[in-house]
Amino acid sequence: MLAFLFPGQGSQKVGMAAGLVRDRFAEADEALGYSLSKIIDEGPESELQLTANTQPAILTVSIAWADELARRGVSAEIAAGHSLGEYSALVYAGALAFSDAVRLVHLRGRFMQEATPAGVGAMAAIIGLDAQAVRDTCLEASPDRSDACQPANFNGAGQVVVAGHKGAVERAMALAKQKGAKLVKALPVSAPFHSALMAPAAEKLAAELDKIALSPLRIPVVANVTAEPNRDASQVKDLLIRQVTGSVRWEETMKGLEKAGVDRAFEVGPGSVLAGLLKRSAPGIKMESLHAL
């Protein structure tokens, strides 16, 4: 069984659309009302790194790659996406129209950026502790929950990203080191994604999702917040809203795909972050190279 895995924020770079057919880029420019394609092709890097540009840029490149795979006769039986990538997976599955998805993730990026003032939140990677140890560490770092920290991404193989108030994240980092974490690293991000601090963004996104019509899913898409395949279009909006403040359960997603019989996958989009995570979490799934087709 073949799965398509769609990457999230962090895989972007100027020039990442080289060699791809341009139809999707013109459609994205029209949907947004500005030249996203020029930012993708020419930068500057500082413009591409703005969350409101990064998210639609990665989605557009990912769907352009999915189109290229379709032209070569390659199609998936199930899809999953890391954070932002869940939107790409839903476009591929037919639930979201591409133009609607581009506008949604542009707004999603803006809402997430605006949800917390600069310097209030933080994120950090903790490597070498299991998932429960990281959960416990977050609780210890914010015992009264007024200064909260929580797991944001369970990426697999002992890699968990935490997010929340800066003070609580710094306390969690110190505790993780005391507990024997191999590596604890603050991440250079602009907001504490997938944490309770994103609640204002979730509310605004819910209002935008209310304006969008969904279509039936032609293949299942594994939801980030449940790590379970979903084929019910009526559940999609709720899953996407919960995703803004909830943890990305990527390791469970990869193990679930392997258990379900997936033995091949393509990382459909820029970069190779998901290939590395897959190798450590579900070694029975072979990651195919887009560039080897």
Question: Overview of this structure, please?
Answer:
There is one protein chain. By secondary structure, the protein is of the alpha/beta class. The protein folds into two domains: 2-115 and 197-292, 3-Layer(aba) Sandwich (Malonyl-Coenzyme A Acyl Carrier Protein, domain 2); 121-189, 2-Layer Sandwich (Alpha-Beta Plaits). It is 46% helix and 16% strand. It has twelve helices and ten strands. The strands form two sheets. Strands 8-7-2-1-9-10 form a six-stranded mixed beta sheet, sandwiched between helices. Strands 4-5-3-6 form a four-stranded antiparallel beta sheet. Strand 9, helix 12 and strand 10 (286-288) form a beta-alpha-beta unit. Helix 1 (23-32) crosses helix 6 and helix 9 (199-209) runs antiparallel to helix 10 (233-245). The mean pLDDT is 95.
Q: What number of structural domains do the residues give?
A: 2
Residues in helices, as a percent range? 40-55%
End-to-end C-alpha gap: 18 Å
Q: Main beta sheet, described?
A: 6 strands, mixed
